[in-house]
Design brief:
single chain; 706 residues; alpha+beta; PH-domain like; eight-stranded mixed β-sheet; 40% helix; 30% strand
């Protein structure tokens, strides 16, 4: 049995929203990676207490309960995957995957059960619905009634904001069922209550997003920003990442807190909290806790009394409370030695930081892009000047980010960084004269093999060749079909040549006449290839040898049925992804076998192409000879037809003088100008003259006698 199971397009239910991602089950535990935020949930196998399989709106779902009361829900499974999951749970986690369907009777009267961080409303033994108590933002009580309010979900078009439960009174003395219900909810709910004293307070910190100066009060479970106009309460559970970034001037520091879900002010959402510090500003900090509590809670990460730079104290306290690592810039250094690049994004100037696993831009608006969500990057020429260039990033979801006005000197450093991280580059840019070929990048990316890379390269070359051919053809047609200046010159040339033939023209006219035939000759030269071009654009010969397949495609064709049998019901897309993963994990020795087969196929193709080209040339020569022979036959047939017509015309002309000699007399000039178009009619003219001579002599004698 396999040691791991992987599922794509699985949805995790978090705070009322369904986040898609990838789920991986291994012997060590369960790992889910969110595609949107990149956040990873890791559940150790020893922590799993129960697994439930049930039918949900998105097919079938898996609910996991841990020993400490946490609940994880994953939807998007197929019904056929139950047996595989059940066997995996039994073998590696020693758990029976229970099947429990939801109750769909539609009753609104039942029993409420609290289990860990989950409120379950049941009818009999079947649950109707479940509410994660971490979604509850407020709990209020009334007479025989409890009202639960929920956090607003920005990703959903419609959000559930409130649920009311009617709790009937009981006869037991000293126990209020309404208060007991509310206490069970509040003990697990994500309710922000500023009770007690803050652990520490930072006064008048400069905040760029949201803009202003705020007092930051650190509580055990949340962060309180208190400003002159607005207050924000940020639970530590919403903090996704922490960044500490040096400013380009080396005198200031950015401390960036990534939030999911974001804090809200009206219709504005702030996904990042950005604080700006001066490196010279120091502080002495005393925590509002005794030393034993500090040691017990923070385990040496914090002490009761601390002193140092203000940005160091804030970042150290936040790291200890949030329990997240702080991300700092890696080994990247720009042209000026700074760890960032000055650029513009959406008409605002800021700083772009290349990190070890992504890019972050500060500060307006802040943007964080992870490498694993990048489809490709592109280096583009600046729109206004050649002294700068644009850096474009497109994600797999189709979102495009353009960072413009980057100094030309930063190009080499940024290109080397992108190339070292093995990101796909749409164009090769202008490194060292801005001449980098696609093949060089493909060689550098061999370690991280892409399943489609070899096939895509061949198809891309064909598309580029066709595009170049079509663009060249269209360019010639455009130059010749629309050039009003040259058309006017052609018209003027005809009139000028006529004028010079009839009358003497000036020097300017003669100069113009000498220049214009050169233009005309140039046009003729350009049109000649265009007439022959359709011959070169014939369709592919079906008898031509087919291109050889790459090593990957040969392997895929040989193993496609095996992959289908190992993964029944797999889709075409998932099959391609799985094949790519198997090929990538294959050893070098096994790949060499398929490389040899691909090399043999290539040699056979080259040999077949040579034979095909020789045969096509011979066939072309035979076709040319047959064309000439056919043309010669047509010419002979045409000559015979003309000769036959000429003899019939001569016979009719010899008979006509006997009937009416006065009407049929033709002078030599008339005959030569009218009927001597062909060389064969000269003989007919001499015959006509001989026949007309007696008539001329008789007429002359008659006129003499008169």
């Amino acid at each position: 049995m396999a040691d791991t199971l992987e599922f794509n397009e699985i949805y995790q239910e978090v705070k009322g929203s369904m986040n898609d991602g990838r789920l991986r089950l291994s012997r060590q535990g369960v790992i889910f990676k969110n595609s949107k935020t990149g956040k990873v949930d890791n559940i150790q196998a020893s922590e799993l207490a129960e697994g439930v399989w049930r039918r949900v709106a998105l097919g079938h779902g898996l609910k996991l309960l841990t020993k400490n009361g946490h609940v994880y829900k994953y939807d998007g499974f197929r019904e056929s995957e139950f047996d595989k999951l059940s066997e995996f749970f039994r073998a590696h986690y020693r758990l029976e995957l229970a099947e429990k369907d939801l109750c769909v009777k539609g009753w609104n009267w039942g029993t409420v059960r609290f289990g860990g961080q989950l409120l379950s409303f049941d009818i009999g033994e079947q649950p109707v619905f479940e509410i994660p108590l971490s979604n509850v933002s407020q709990c209020t009580t009334g007479k025989n009634e409890v009202t639960l309010e929920f956090h607003q979900n920005d990703d959903a078009e419609v959000s559930l904001m409130e649920v009311r439960f009617y709790v009937p009174p009981t006869q037991e003395d000293g126990v209020d069922p309404v208060e007991a219900f509310a206490q069970n909810v509040l003990s697990k709910a994500d309710v922000i209550q500023a009770t007690g004293d803050a652990i520490c307070i930072f006064r008048e910190l400069q905040c760029l997003t949201p803009r202003g100066r705020y007092d930051i009060r650190i509580y055990p479970t949340f962060l309180h920003l208190h400003g002159k106009t607005f207050d924000y309460k940020i639970p530590y559970t919403t903090v996704l990442r922490l960044f500490l970034l040096p400013h380009k001037d080396q005198r200031q520091m950015f401390f960036v807190i990534s939030l999911d879900p974001p804090i809200k002010q009206g219709q504005t959402r702030y996904h990042f909290l950005i604080l700006l510090f001066s490196k010279d500003e120091d502080i002495s900090l005393t925590l509002n806790m005794n030393e034993e509590e500090v040691e017990k809670r923070f385990e040496g990460r914090l002490t009761k009394n601390m002193s140092g730079s203000l940005y160091e104290m804030v970042s150290r306290v936040m790291k200890a409370l949030v329990n997240r690592k702080i991300t700092v810039p890696g080994n990247f250094q720009g042209h000026s030695g700074a760890q960032c690049i000055t650029c513009s994004y959406k008409a605002s100037s800021g700083l772009l930081y290349p990190l070890e696993r992504g890019f972050i831009y500060v500060h307006k608006p802040p943007v964080h892009i992870r490498f694993d969500e990048i489809s490709f990057v592109n280096f583009a020429r600046g729109t206004t000047t050649t002294r700068s260039f644009d850096f474009e990033i497109e994600t797999k979801q189709g979102t495009q980010y353009t960072f413009s006005s980057i100094e030309r000197e930063e190009y080499g450093k940024l290109f080397d960084f992108v190339n070292a991280k093995k990101l796909n580059i749409k164009n090769r840019g202008l490194k060292e004269g801005m001449k980098q070929s696609y093949d060089e990048y493909a060689d550098s990316d061999e370690d991280q093999h892409d399943a489609y890379l070899e096939r895509m390269k061949e198809e891309g070359k064909i598309r580029e060749e066709n595009a170049n051919d079509s663009s060249d053809g269209s360019g010639e047609e455009t130059d010749e079909s629309f050039n009003p200046g040259e058309e006017d010159d052609d018209v003027a040339e005809e009139f000028d040549s006529n004028a010079s033939a009839s009358s003497s023209s000036g020097d300017g006219d003669s100069d113009r006449d000498e220049k214009k035939p050169a233009k005309k000759a140039k046009i003729v030269k350009e049109r000649k290839p265009r007439k022959k071009q359709p011959e070169s654009k014939k369709g592919k010969d079906p008898n031509a040898p087919k291109r050889p397949m790459s090593a990957y495609m040969l392997w895929l064709n040989a193993n496609r049925e095996k992959i289908k049998s190992d993964h029944p019901g797999i889709s075409i897309t998932d099959l391609s992804k799985k094949a790519g993963e198997l090929w990538k994990a294959m050893s070098k020795e096994k790949k060499e076998e398929w490389d040899r087969k691909a090399e043999d196929a290539r040699r056979d193709y080259e040999k077949a192409m040579k034979e095909y080209s020789v045969g096509s040339r011979a066939e072309g020569a035979r076709g040319e000879r047959s064309k000439k022979k056919k043309k010669k036959q047509e010419k002979q047939m045409k000559g015979k037809a003309e000769k036959k017509g000429a003899t019939s015309k001569s016979s009719s002309s010899t008979k006509s003088p006997a009937k009416n000699t006065s009407e049929t007399f033709k002078s030599k000039e008339f005959v030569s100008s009218d009927e001597s178009s062909s060389g064969e009619s000269k003989k007919e003219d001499s015959d006509e003259e001989a026949a007309a001579s007696p008539a001329r002599s008789s007429e002359d004698s008659a006129s003499g006698s008169d």
